[in-house]
Amino acid sequence: MKVSFQNTMAGAMTLLEPDFLPILIFALRVTNNIIGTVRLILVSREQRVWGFAFASLESLLFAYTAGHVITDLNNIPNLAAYVFGFAVGGLVGMQVENRFVKSYESVTVIASREISHQMAEALRGSGHGVTEIMGEGAHGVVEELRIIVHRRDLHQVLKIIHDIKEDVFVTVEHSEFIRGGWIRAHRR
Fold this sequence. Notes:
The chain is elongated and about 70 Å long. Helix 2 packs antiparallel against helix 3, helix 2 runs parallel beside helix 4 and helix 5 packs across helix 6. The protein has a four-stranded antiparallel sheet. By secondary structure, it is an alpha+beta fold.
């Protein structure tokens, strides 16, 4: 029993040797950013207890990794691991957010009747719901298109629009609340 405990402690200590410390700092910094993203998601969903737990873990990982780096800023491998771990953690955190947060955007297009109807047909052909609204602009009759899309589909929608007419007037706004209607993400 005593031998296995000593072997376990010796194994744990090799992780803290200078050669392995940058790897540990990198992994903990990536994990720290992912936990921060999950914490924000939980808080936005009013999961306060889980948000508190993740905030505690996030601050512990931050303190541990920052402590190893701040005590020796001349240690370039540790500093690089900290910096790149934060950057990679941010990228992975964005992927986590895109996967678990349903975020919608409201796209408005204003163009001539012919162009906007062509866009509406192309968007509907790609599975997006489109509302066509007649209006009058500075140069006469126009049509407004309203499209609500999942954030992950926004680039596809904008590509369809710009493939038909490059310089058309387009606005994109975040939609806080969606109920009813035809949204592509709901069909999957």
